[in-house]
TrEMBL record:
Source organism superkingdom: Bacteria
One Pfam entry name: NAD_binding_2
Domain 3-hydroxyisobutyrate dehydrogenase-like NAD-binding: 169-288
Name of the protein this chain belongs to: 2-hydroxy-3-oxopropionate reductase
Enzyme Commission no: 1.1.1.60
Domain (6-phosphogluconate dehydrogenase NADP-binding): residue spans on this chain: 7-166
UniProt similarity note: Belongs to the HIBADH-related family.
Signal peptide: none
GO molecular function: 2-hydroxy-3-oxopropionate reductase activity
Stored PANTHER family: 3-HYDROXYISOBUTYRATE DEHYDROGENASE-LIKE 1, MITOCHONDRIAL-RELATED
Keyword entries, A-Z: NAD, Oxidoreductase
């Protein structure tokens, strides 16, 4: 494809990465991808992307490298070392890490990359699988204004609300706050669902009217059917929300912010995971409330 859009390398093609990379291809970008699962590479090729056999091969000619992997250890694994991004990307490249990781990992990565002449933005997202597919993600960014301005057209192909929140690590801090709000919100909805059902109310009617008032939320809109149908196919896995609650409780402790309700919900997420529900969608917090209320989860 001959166009003047930057050449993109995409590392990490999971639930979020696959649809996001496809949206870039639809927007006319030349995307070369690498991930660990062959079926995801096949999917990228079918969508018009180029498949690389390694990280080094994927990033070699890229103007922009986008990474979307589960957590800090994976970001470090793909960024550092002889086979990693920093050793193999060209000087002057822009690394946009869209993973949700600790703010400190982002700060350290930006510092290490600077020595290689590589610029970094932390750009975690909110909106889940549906937001990724529909390209309406909220993207919170940390880094330099000039790098943000350069990345903005590309980010516009992936999301709707794109905001530079401050220096390196700021995107991750805002994402941590996002995950705090989402988890507490899902927990409140789950408690309401069990209360309503035990009271014999028509759950669908109740959730519809609640969502039309002050209790309404994007969380309730997106998760209403999960609750109604007990459909916990993961859009966002409990395992990942458990990781994120660890990030926000730890970061809050470091800055001296108290999160009394957040800490409680973090424990409820941890307990759900301990009961074997880590692979389910985070709306499965409903199962924890059912167990606490003396019911077998439906």
């Amino acid at each position: 494809m001959s166009n003047n859009l930057p050449k993109v390398a995409w590392i990490g093609l999971g639930i979020m990465g696959s649809p996001m990379s496809e949206n870039l291809i639809k927007a006319g970008y030349d995307v070369t991808g690498f991930t660990l699962e062959q079926d995801k590479l096949d999917r990228l090729a079918a969508a018009g992307g180029t498949v690389a056999a390694s990280i080094a091969e994927a990033v070699r000619d890229a103007d922009v490298v986008v990474t979307m992997v589960p957590a800090s250890p994976q970001v470090e694994a793909i960024a550092y070392g002889a086979d990693g991004i920093l050793e193999n990307a060209k000087s002057g490249a822009l690394l946009v890490d869209m993973s949700s990781i600790t703010p400190q990992t982002s700060v350290d990565l930006a510092k290490a990359a600077k020595d290689k002449g590589i610029r970094v933005l932390d750009a975690p997202v909110s909106g889940g699988e549906a937001g990724a597919i529909e390209a309406v993600l909220s993207i919170m960014v940390g880094g330099e204004q000039a790098d943000f301005d350069e990345a903005k057209p590309l980010l516009d192909a992936l999301g709707k609300t794109i905001v530079l929140c401050g220096p390196h690590g700021s995107g991750q801090t805002v994402k941590a706050a996002n995950q705090l709000i989402v988890a507490v919100n899902i927990q409140a909805c789950a408690e309401a669902v069990v209360f309503l059902e035990k009271s014999g109310v028509d759950l669908k009617a109740a959730l519809d009217v609640l969502n039309g008032g002050l209790a309404g939320s994007t969380v309730l809109t997106r998760k209403k059917d999960n609750f109604l149908n007990r459909d916990f196919k993961p859009g966002f896995r409990i395992d990942l929300h458990h990781k994120d609650m660890g990030i926000v409780t730890d970061a809050a402790r470091n800055v001296g912010a108290a999160l009394p309700v957040g800490a409680t919900v973090a424990q409820l997420v941890a307990s759900l995971r301990a009961q074997g529900d880590g692979g389910l969608d985070h709306s499965a917090l409903l199962r924890a409330v059912e167990r606490l209320s003396g019911d077998q989860p439906k």
